[in-house]
Structures are given as structure tokens and as C-alpha cells.
Design a protein that fits this description.
With 445 residues, this protein is mainly alpha-helical. The chain has helices spanning 3-25, 34-75, 80-94, 118-124, 132-153, 159-166, 169-177, 184-193, 198-211, 217-224, 228-248, 257-268, 275-281, 286-309, 313-326, 340-346, 373-376, 391-396, 403-441.
């Protein structure tokens, strides 16, 4: 018999066998999908519970937001950081005056001294031709757009994520005070988005470090993931971003800038939400407290380096961001807005991880030392508040360090980053199992 006849005979036998098998199965009762239905109902209950928690937390956040905004308008806090750190400094540059106060002067302790390198001041300078009320409105809108843009760049499309981010305490605080830290969030987001393009990622990392020096751990991330060319571009960008704008103002304040930063640390490091604040509240002197904060940042940055060398890119940048936040001696609440980046990388769709954001409001209910009204009176320890400084800012920066609010903020930051890492690791394991299963089914691999 020829090979073609053999193939036809085998094909006919297989068709007959399949027909017989189908005849046997006719009328058979299909299995009831009881278990999948139970799992679906459990998933539905879980989603319902999560949505209820979302409604409760967003409602509480909106109440706090209303209270904060109303108090800020009443006390004159709106745009206070923006005015002192950038607006007035940009006007000084425009009028050929030094934008920086002398280290150790009362101007450093006002609550909003000019501490940024000149680059951001030049960026803000065009706004100063506008009236103050219009200029601060434009600036606030830019800060809000920066948060929205950051999430969009990272692939977030769920409206619930945007809502939770915009009503979170770190973002609301930054919008009220007009702090430029919110502009760093899109820079870090773009660094992740452009991580495979060494020129782009180097440029945005360099600009971010120039704007706020505490973002130096992003350089560790580039080094750990062997992005050497990007690190070189970042170093050149940072150097040019410091020297060129400073040369335009004749290097005014350049020599005394390290002393200015140390003077600011002595005042503000113990009054924020940093590790230095915790250590100072426990009785350590300011210098040692700030050194411990830097040590915490170095330890977390070292962990980022280790995991980055092992190829865990997403985890490495998440740890680098945590190192930047917790390692900063001066740490205000809006710095925690940078945690939006690891959250969006781990969970671009709404999940339980996003529900941690409203909890920052609850840290403000933790015990904090109060400043007696007698301290503000003549002869008191917090006497002689300037007329243009809001009372909340003056009281906050003259009260004793608040241990528990700082602990609460740090605990939430660690929890958010740990949760992000867990989601990333779980997703990676699921992908590895799926790839392994496909290889077992495909004999060609």
C-alpha cells in the first residue's frame, strides 16, 4: 500500500472514532460550574467592600481638604512657600539683587527662605510680571497638572486613582503652600518612562537633582541598573544646571550656600516629618539627628543598588525614591507625593494599594506638642512673628518636634513602598510561571 493510501486510511479511522466519541457524549449532563460561581461571588464582594472603603476614605479626605483650604485662605497660607522660595527670589534676580538670605539671620527662620539653586528661580521669573494673585493661581494650576501628568505618563487611566492622588494630604498640602516639590513628581515619572533612552533619562534625573538635592538616590538607581551613559548625562546636566544659572547672577550666595543649608537644617530638620524630627523628639541634638536621617537614606539606597544589580528595575527605583524621602533631613509632607511614582508603577489600575493615600490625613490626629499662646507674646520663645508670616507656619516651626506624626508618615511611606514591591514581585512571579508553562507546552523550545 502507498504512503498516501495509508494516510487516507488513518484519517478515515480518526474521523470514525471522533464521530463515535461524539455520539457517546450526546445527552451527557455538562458539569455544573459551582466553584467558579462561588469564586466570582467572592470577587464581587471583595470589590464591593473595596469600593465602600474608597467612598469612606475619600469622604473623610474631602472633609479634611475643606477644613485645610478654608483655614489656609483665612490665615494667608495660600502660596506662602511659593512666594518666599521662588516668587520673591525671582524678583530679586530680575532686579539684580541676591536672592539668598545670609546664613544664621532671622530671614532663614521665617518659614519660607530661598533655598533652591537658581535654576527654578529663572523658571518662575516670567510669572513675576503678573499680579501676585494671578501668578499664584497659574502656579497652583501647574502643580496640579504636574500630578495629573505624572500619573498619565506612568500609564494610569483609572479615574479613582487620580481622585485619590489629588485629594491626598501630601498633594493638597503642596498645592496650598505652592511648594515646587510637586514638580519633581513628573520628572521622576519621566525618568522611569524614558529609562531605556539614556539622554532623556539623564537629563530629567539631572534637572530633578538640581531642583532638589535630596533626589540624589536616583543616581544610585542609574548606577545599579548599569545605565552608565545616563548617569554621565545626569552628572553633566546637574553640574551645568547649578553653575550656568548661578553664573548669570554673578555667583551671588554661591560661597555661603553650604552654610545656608546647614542653617536651614538646624531650624527645619526637627520640625517636619523626617527621621531627624523623630530623633530630635527623642532627645538627640540636631547635628546627630540629621546624620541619622542621611544614614537611613544611605541604607535604603544601598538596598536599591543591590536589587538593581540583580535586575529588579522597578523595585530598585521604588527603593531609591523611598531613600530620597526618608533620607532627607528636611522633610515636609508634600515630599511624600513622590510615592505616587512607585504606586503607579506597581498598580496603574485602582487596587487596595491606592487606599493608603487618604491615611496621611489621619497622621495629623496623632499626638503633637502644642505651642502655648504665651510663647508668641513679647518675651516668649516664639516672639515677634513677622506680619506676613501665617500663624500656622510660625507655630509649627517653633513648637517642639512632633514624634508621632513623623513616625506615622514614615510608617505609611514604608508600607506604600513595601506594598508596591510586593505587587511588583507577585506580578513578576506570575509572568515567570506563565512563561514556564508555555515552554512546557511548546516542544520546540
Amino acid at each position: 500500500m502507498r504512503r498516501a493510501d495509508v494516510h487516507r486510511t488513518l484519517a478515515a479511522d480518526s474521523v470514525t472514532a471522533s464521530d463515535q466519541a461524539s455520539d457517546v457524549n450526546v445527552g451527557a449532563t455538562p458539569p455544573r460550574p459551582s466553584r467558579p460561581v462561588q469564586l466570582a461571588s467572592r470577587d464581587g464582594l471583595a470589590r464591593l467592600g473595596r469600593d465602600l472603603v474608597l467612598l469612606v476614605l475619600v469622604g473623610a479626605a474631602l472633609v479634611w481638604l475643606y477644613i485645610w483650604v478654608r483655614a489656609a485662605v483665612r490665615d494667608g497660607s495660600v502660596g506662602f512657600d511659593f512666594r518666599g522660595t521662588l516668587w520673591d527670589a525671582a524678583i530679586d534676580i530680575r532686579e539684580r539683587r541676591s536672592p539668598y538670605p545670609e546664613p544664621g539671620t532671622d530671614e532663614v527662620g521665617r518659614g519660607n527662605p530661598a533655598l533652591y539653586p537658581p535654576l527654578l528661580m529663572f523658571v518662575v521669573a516670567p510669572l513675576t510680571v503678573l499680579p501676585w494673585s494671578l501668578g499664584v493661581a497659574v502656579w497652583t494650576a501647574l502643580l496640579g497638572a504636574a500630578i495629573v501628568g505624572s500619573l498619565y505618563v506612568l500609564g494610569v487611566r483609572d479615574a479613582r486613582c487620580y481622585l485619590l492622588a489629588l485629594v491626598s494630604a501630601p498633594v493638597v498640602n503642596g498645592l496650598i503652600w505652592g511648594n515646587a516639590t510637586l514638580l519633581l513628581v513628573p520628572l521622576v515619572a519621566l525618568a522611569w518612562r524614558w529609562r531605556s533612552q539614556f539622554v532623556r533619562v539623564g537629563l530629567v534625573v539631572g534637572v530633578a537633582v538640581v531642583a532638589k538635592l535630596f533626589l540624589w538616590p536616583l543616581g544610585i538607581w542609574l548606577l545599579a541598573t548599569k545605565r552608565y551613559r545616563a548617569l554621565g548625562v545626569a552628572a553633566l546636566t546637574a553640574t551645568a544646571g547649578v553653575l550656568f544659572p548661578w553664573a548669570l547672577i554673578g555667583f551671588d550666595g554661591f560661597g555661603s550656600y553650604p552654610d545656608l543649608l546647614r542653617s536651614a537644617e538646624e531650624i527645619y530638620a526637627i520640625h517636619g516629618y523626617s527621621v531627624a524630627t523623630m530623633m530630635s523628639a527623642l532627645g538627640l541634638e540636631t547635628g546627630l539627628a540629621t546624620s541619622l536621617a542621611l544614614s537611613v537614606g544611605l541604607v535604603i539606597a544601598a538596598a536599591a543598588f543591590v536589587v538593581g544589580r540583580r535586575g529588579y528595575d522597578e523595585i530598585a527605583i521604588s527603593l531609591a525614591i523611598l531613600a530620597a524621602v526618608l533620607g532627607s533631613p528636611i522633610l515636609w509632607e508634600y515630599y511624600y507625593a513622590l510615592l505616587l511614582v512607585p504606586m503607579a508603577i506597581a498598580a496603574p489600575r485602582f487596587s487596595a494599594l491606592w487606599l493608603f493615600l487618604p491615611l496621611f490625613y489621619f497622621t495629623h490626629r496623632l499626638p503633637r506638642p502644642r505651642l502655648l499662646s504665651t510663647a508668641i507674646e513679647p518675651g516668649g520663645s516664639a516672639c515677634c512673628k513677622p506680619d506676613d508670616v501665617p500663624m500656622p507656619s510660625w507655630v509649627f516651626n517653633h513648637a517642639a518636634p512632633g514624634l508621632w506624626p513623623a513616625v506615622g508618615h514614615a510608617a505609611l511611606a514604608v508600607t506604600i513602598v513595601a506594598g508596591s514591591i510586593w505587587v511588583i514581585a507577585s506580578r513578576s512571579q506570575s509572568t515567570d510561571r506563565a512563561v514556564g508553562g508555555s515552554r512546557e507546552l511548546d516542544p520546540s523550545q
